[in-house]
Write a structure and sequence with these properties.
Blueprint: H1 2-13, H2 15-44, E1 55-59, E2 67-68, E3 79-80, H3 82-90, E4 95-110, E5 113-122, H4 126-130, E6 134-137, E7 153-156, H5 158-165, E8 175-178, E9 181-189, E10 204-207, H6 211-214, E11 226-227, E12 229-235, H7 241-260, H8 269-276, E13 281-284, H9 292-328, H10 330-338, H11 343-379, H12 382-385, H13 394-419, H14 424-429, H15 439-474, E14 485-490, H16 499-514, E15 519-525, E16 535-538, E17 540-541, E18 553-559, H17 563-567, E19 571-574, E20 588-592, H18 593-598, E21 610-612, E22 623-629, E23 644-648, E24 658-664, H19 668-682, E25 689-693, H20 694-701, H21 703-737, H22 739-747, H23 752-784, H24 797-823, H25 827-831
Parallel strand pairs: 2-11, 5-10, 7-9, 18-23, 20-22
Antiparallel strand pairs: 1-12, 1-13, 3-12, 4-5, 4-8, 4-12, 6-9, 7-10, 8-9, 14-24, 14-25, 15-24, 16-18, 17-21, 19-22, 20-23, 21-22
Length: 834
């Protein structure tokens, strides 16, 4: 306790040094704690289920002729057909169980109120394989997975039960309407369990065999060429992934070669060989299944590296401060050693002071971390906020405490060792008792500053790359006009509407929206643009040579009348769709320039050509191309515009869900706030989904780029500021140590300019070495981050040049005051200095 009191008194004796050190550490540790919070939730956290380490995710990459339906749980290399799932589930292998699931949009109605939410279709083995327990009632089991389309039961998520139903235990055996079907609530999942797909947390779990009830137009379960189910399994005790995988791959190979290969048509020999050689791929499943993990890994690792670098720079500053303070305390420490204190006792006291300093910085860092998380929350799209917790969780506080203790030992060790190595007689003989700082300490201080400059250079280059990448994105020509457009979706099919009823509702909706004040255009689309969704199909086009392995795929959208005019997409030739392009009229299509180029259609002469959405040989060309439009972005702002064709949604027999686009001449916010009332007047039980401005939709699609650009810039500027403080401190301290030298030089005739050049020469050496090392690091980081950059190389010379220029200005500013101070030394005063 006495040692702590002494440490507190010592820190209080130098309030400025202590305040600067605490602030530096608070900024460094706080930034790291905030990014760790995201890192932990998005990349480290395991599912809250029994023994998650034995869960394994399945994938089956390779040729998959047929239809593929992929979602947030992973890409299309990870989806399986339902018959293949049943084959694998029944196999004897090193897996104690195999489960399947698929996410879907759900309109949930109870007590006269309908909300749009998320659902998950799960096999009867799903909860059992995971080891999830019910919070109320029972969960779905094998008995609920026997007969296709006959199990009208459901389990609610704990969050939905608590937040929407008030945690009422009386909901058991009550009815909830999901997508127009009455389902009996048989249980509530355990608290904290939010499904197995990060970012797609379900409100309700329904048996997998009820997919045809949730989607009445879905063709069925029997097809082995329809891939849509995600699979995972649990290992038997003591069985490795390799062994279990080898056993299951034996069965998989047999099914592929003996059953499924015979079902493939129009496949070349080379493709058939790859089809037969396909194997199951297995990955650890402790985090569940989500395509988000791969997308988030590199950005979060990069941000973690940036904040770690900021902390290293802060630690270097504090080490320099402690070295300077230690030089001033050499006489005190030497005297304490001469009267009996051992070096270990002195070391322990000095390390205690540095650790106490670090812990005070760690406490202050919690406030910085909370501010940083709040700033991140302000930038995250609304959907993202539902999946992460932006508050100081116990794990974050523990991380900050460990980081503070570790940094206290790191930045305090060398100054403590250096300060305790001199004896009293040496100190007393050294320049009349004045602390001069030896060559090793001076070299160490310079090395720290060079390291700070190098790290700052690297961060400035990386931040500059992300900022310029974001600038490139902001200058992308979308091919459409996003201003003053509001978009939203409705899903009447999920409320039990038949397709013809849905079309009639869409017509009434268009009329009601068109009647709103200031509305100048209304249209609709099956696939919402700039939302990440993408639908594709193989096509046949008049004059295009078809054959095995020939790429005849294109993206598609089914759209309403005046779609291109409302969204400002220029029509290059022909016409766009009208309201009379309906089921009783000949089939028509509009294609974009990329489609015309891919399929050999020469511009305006594409109008009048015929095509089909059947990509097989000899397909009937039942669609006439009536227009060609300019290329416009489809799923993502950063994508290359794909070959696209459009058909009228009024000519689709099964359409039941659609996204509307409303253009206004005034404030789009007024239109946005009025839309829920318009839909409620048409059907009070139909929820409005994804209500947002199209401009915000476009911004949200590049959220990750804005996130990286903003945070990396902020942290790089912070690092540069800290490095400039360190550079100033070293130069100021060096000038103080060289006061006598500068006085002698000036007494011998040197003017102020020559003395300033000496200081700037030292500054230049450190800056040049630091920049050279930093550039090497920056170029390596730039290459690693190129996948995150848009139309930019990781070694962009403009960014590198600007980073060096910024650092040069900062270094010059940091060195100006010490240089001026050195040039104004009075020779007589300097000669009496020591």
């Amino acid at each position: 306790m006495t040692a702590f009191k002494f440490a507190f008194r010592t820190l209080a004796h130098t309030p400025f040094v202590t305040a600067v050190a605490i602030l530096s550490l608070a900024l460094g540790i706080g930034a790291n704690a905030a990014i760790f919070s995201l890192f932990d939730q998005l990349l480290l956290k395991s599912l809250p289920v029994q023994d998650p380490g034995t869960l394994v995710n399945f994938a089956n990459p390779g040729p998959k002729p047929g239809s593929q339906s992929c979602g947030g749980a992973g890409d299309c290399s990870e989806v399986f057909s339902y018959p293949m799932f049943k084959d694998l589930e029944a196999a004897e292998s090193g897996f104690s169980g195999i489960a399947a699931h698929m996410a879907f949009g759900a309109n949930l109605a109870q007590d006269g109120e309908t909300v749009h939410g998320r659902g998950m279709l799960v096999s009867g083995s799903y909860f059992g394989v995971l080891g999830v327990r019910p919070a109320l009632g029972r969960l779905l089991g094998p008995a609920d997975d026997q007969n296709i389309g006959e199990h009208f039961v459901a389990v609610l998520s704990h969050d939905y039960w608590r937040n929407r139903l008030g945690g009422d235990p009386g909901v058991l055996n009550e009815t909830i309407i999901a997508n127009g079907k009455s389902m009996t609530i048989v249980g509530v999942a355990q608290e904290g369990f939010r499904g197995t797909t990060f970012g797609g947390e379900p409100d309700i779990f329904i048996p997998l065999v009820m997919r045809n009830a949730m989607f009445p137009t879905w063709p069925g379960f029997e097809s082995r060429r329809g891939y849509w189910a995600y699979l995972f399994g649990r290992l038997e005790p003591g069985v490795s992934i390799e062994r279990a995988g080898a056993e299951l791959n034996n069965l998989y190979a047999a099914v592929l070669n003996d059953v499924e290969a015979e079902l493939q048509t129009s496949m070349s020999d080379a493709t058939m060989e790859r089809f037969r050689a396909r194997e199951l791929v297995f990955e650890p499943g402790h985090r569940g299944q989500s395509e988000f993990y791969d997308e988030a890994r590199m950005p979060l690792l990069l941000l973690f590296g940036i904040t770690g670098t900021v902390l290293l720079i802060a630690c270097a500053n504090i080490a320099n401060l402690l070295l300077a303070r230690g030089a001033q305390r050499e006489q005190e420490i030497a005297i304490r050693g001469s009267i009996g204190a051992s070096r270990w006792q002195l070391l322990r006291q000095l390390l205690l002071e540095s650790c106490l300093l670090a812990m005070l910085g760690g406490i202050a860092s919690l406030l910085v971390a909370q501010w940083t998380l709040a700033a991140i929350g302000a930038a995250v799209p609304a959907d993202g906020l539902a999946t992460i917790t932006l508050e100081l969780r116990p794990a974050v506080v523990a991380f900050a405490a460990i980081l503070a203790l570790g940094t206290g030992l790191v930045f305090g060790l060398y100054p403590a060792l250096h300060s305790t190595r001199s004896d009293l007689s040496t100190v007393l003989r050294s320049n009349a008792g004045q602390a001069a700082g030896d060559i090793d300490a001076a070299r160490f201080r310079r090395s720290l500053v060079i390291a700070q400059i190098a790290l700052s250079t690297a961060l400035l280059v990386v931040a500059g790359l992300f900022v310029r990448s974001l600038l490139n994105i902001s200058q992308v020509d979308l091919g459409l006009q996003t201003d003053n457009v509001v978009t939203f979706a409705i899903s009447p099919q999920l409320n039990g509407y038949e397709p013809e009823e849905s079309k009639a509702l869409f017509q009434r909706t268009e009329e009601a929206l068109s009647a709103m004040p200031s509305v100048t255009g209304v249209t609709a689309a099956m696939v919402p643009i700039l939302s990440g969704d993408s639908w594709g199909n193989s096509v046949s086009v008049e004059g295009f040579e078809w054959g095995p392995d020939v790429d005849n795929g294109a993206r598609l959208n089914r759209i309403g009348a005046d779609y291109f005019g409302t969204l400002g997409i220029p029509l290059m030739a022909g016409r766009e769709f009208a309201t009379d392009d309906a089921m009783d009229t000949p089939g028509v299509a509009v294609v974009n320039e990329a489609f015309a180029e891919k399929f050999g259609l020469d511009g305006a002469r594409a109008v009048g050509k015929r095509m089909s959405t059947d990509g097989g040989r000899g397909a009937e060309l039942d669609l006439e191309i009536v227009g060609v439009v300019q290329n416009a972005k489809y799923a993502q702002v950063k994508e290359v515009v794909p070959p696209m064709f459009f058909t009228p949604y009024r000519q689709d027999e099964s359409i039941g869900n659609i996204t509307f686009y409303v253009r206004s001449s005034g404030d789009s916010q007024q239109v946005l706030s009025a839309i829920p009332g318009v839909i409620e007047a048409l059907d009070p039980n139909l929820p409005v989904e994804s209500l947002i401005t199209l401009e915000q939709q476009a911004n949200d699609s590049v959220f990750l780029d804005r996130f990286l650009g903003t945070l990396s810039s902020a942290f790089a500027l912070l690092a540069t500021l800290l490095a400039s403080v360190g550079l100033y401190g070293v130069l100021a301290y060096t000038v103080a140590l060289r006061t006598r030298e500068f006085g002698i030089r000036m007494a011998l005739g040197a003017d102020g300019g020559r003395v300033r050049r000496l200081v700037f020469k030292q500054l230049g050496r450190m800056a040049l070495i630091g920049c050279a090392v930093g550039l090497a690091v920056a170029l390596a980081l730039g290459r690693a981050a190129e996948s995150l950059l848009f139309e930019l190389q990781g070694s962009d010379p403009l960014v590198v040049g600007l980073a060096i220029a910024v650092l040069g200005v900062v270094a010059l500013a940091a060195g100006t005051i010490p240089a001026l101070r050195a040039s104004r030394i009075d020779p007589m005063t300097a000669l009496r200095y020591e």
